[in-house]
Amino acid sequence: MSGVEDVGPRRALGPEPQDDGEGDTSLERAVVPASAAWFLDEFGFHDVTRRPDGDLDVVIAYHDRAWLLRFLLGHADVVTPADPGLAAEIAARASAGLELYHSADEPAPEP
Question: Which of 68, 64, 67, 58 is nearest to 30 (CA)?
C-alpha cells in the first residue's frame, strides 16, 4: 500500500447496551448471514452459533428497546431479527423513513 495516512483514532460504534447499566438486560435472537460474519468482530454478540448453511444465529443483549430498534435499523444489511413481529416493525420503520425522502421531492404546499 502506498499513500496511507493516519486519520486519527477509530470512531466508536456507539454505546454498547451494557454501558447503560440501568434495568434488566433483555435478549433478542437474530441472524447474521455468512457473508457478514466480519460483523461479529465489530459487535459483541452472545451465544453465536453457526448454522449448516454458514449463517450465524446470534443473541443481542440490550437494556433499552429504543437502542435495539436503532441498532437493527442501522445494521439491517447485516443483522435480521429472528422474531417475525420485530422484523416487520423494523421493515415498517425503514419504509416510513424512505417515504420521507419521496415526500421531500414533492413541492411544499402553498401557505
Answer: 58
Q: Print the domain residue range for 53.
A: 25-104
Residue 70 reports pLDDT greater than 70: yes
Q: Does residue 81 lie within any of the structural domains?
A: yes
**Dihedral angle over CA of 41, 42, 46, 51, nearest 10:** -60
- pTM summary value: 0.70
Largest Cα–Cα distance in the chain? Answer: 60
Check residue 102 and give its pLDDT.
Answer: 78
Give the total number of structural domains in the chain: 1
Instruction: Tell me whether residue 6 is in a domain.
Output: no
Which residues are CB-contacts of 102 (< 8 A; sequence separation ≥ 6)? none
